[in-house]
Fold:
Amino acid sequence: MGKQTKKKKSTGAAKEIFAKPPGRLGKWNVIAFVVLVIGELIYYYAATPAINIQSTSFWVWMVISVALVGFCTLDFTVESNDTRSVATKATKPAAWIVVIMIAVGLIMVAASSKLFCASKYASLINIEDGDFQTDIPESRQINDIALMDTSTARIIGERAVGSLSDVVSQYEVSGNYSTIDYNGAPMKVAALNYAGFIKYMNNRKNGIPGYVLVDPVKNEAHYIQTEKPIVYSPSAYFNKNLYRHVQMAYPTYIFEGFYLELSDDGNPYYICPVLESHAGLFGAKDVKGVVICDPCTGDTEYHEVSDVPHWVDRVYDGDLVCQKYDWYGELSGGYWNSVFGNKGCKRTTDDYGYKVMDGDVWVYTGVTSVNGDESNIGFALMNLRTGESKYYKVAGAEEYSAMSSAEGQVQHLGYKASFPSLINISGIPTYIMVLKDNGGLVKMYALVDVEKYNIVATGTTQKDALAAYNKLLAENGLKSTQSMTDDIPNRQITVADIKYINMDETTYVYITDENGNVYKQDFSENEELIFIQSGDKIKVFYQESANGINDIISVER
Structure:
């Protein structure tokens, strides 16, 4: 009986606490809803998420918002100086909606994964087999090749505005350089940013006065002042913030990155790629189009990928095209093959470079097996405007191995190699790269045979490096004197004078022809020059030099 009595008391206490029917919404609920609405508006303005079910951030926002709505429907009462909350009729539905949304979201994440959609991930990119000899033009003179990396561009770009006191005191050069084709020449361009919130408030009416244009061939940077000030910028605040401006103009679009480019007449524009999912709700995102924004006026215009103006160079980001190639290389044989069998699986190397060809910017990257050895089985070129992708089956050194090989040639100087570019020297795939000192300045150039990366040539100028490389190719039987005829300057001459001059413990041979042209070569590189005398008729293969003294590559007697 005692137990039964105790049980009744316990039940009675529970009824006293919980049996109270839900109350109606009171003034505190109204206040809570007003605060919630204001908070939602502030969040949307500050974060500006895409209102799109393919955006994971949108789902998180909605789940939290519904949960807060449920919280605002609680009936707050005061009993015996204790604050208690009792659920109203609207609370449980809100809770169930949250649970359902979370469950659906998790199911959609799983349904969008590579496990269930491997073929969709692999089919995002169409790879064609390329022909190296046809697609990569021969580089007969390499002094027109853009070799500058972004870190070097930052250094000389900052110097370009360093002497402009009114600019450098209020603005800073963005670290995000875009590689573009500007009227047929490779260039790097970077915007100026406001140097903090206070500087923005002081200059918001004047805007940003210009941008920095870097010539990666000549290693020069120029500050370009625009006719109209740049008003919309990623570094601006409030309504002038570029991201907020574009996202609010297209609230349902999912944007990924903003890239500054120049039209053919030098006007700046921001290119804003728009993504959509191809696997479930969240997976295999790819570019479906771009929004082009004039940062001076704020005007925007959307273009499908197939309708993008030709002056636009960066519809696809380099990271994205390499990711798409990795999906293709790893998942073409199915998900489980990518995990266990690895049959035919390949992927891009850890980095990539840019190559400007035929008015477009291409990403170059090596392709290696998933086993991660130090060699490439080929390389890929991917067009950042059209998405066109080509694979070249050229086995050889992985880029970082080639960089180490080049650094080994100048290890006594401590120079570091930049990520290489790929060029065609007489049909031979060749890495070309710069060697920099600790301050990031270019000191030398290096050429490395892709297939035989023990063949390395360096020089203080691009011409010197090319001359040394051609000699090494000839010495290793990879390039005959006859094959040099088409791609290296050569001339049939009559020797008018020949001299041997010692400089820096090295003997140089100077040959003067009947027209006064002068050619020189290190005697130790070709001791057969000793047999040449005045009056001899010879054929000389040479590299032109700015000082008029041509560097001899080879001589036929």
Summary: Residues 1-22, 80-84 have pLDDT under 50 and may be disordered. The longest helix spans residues 27-47.
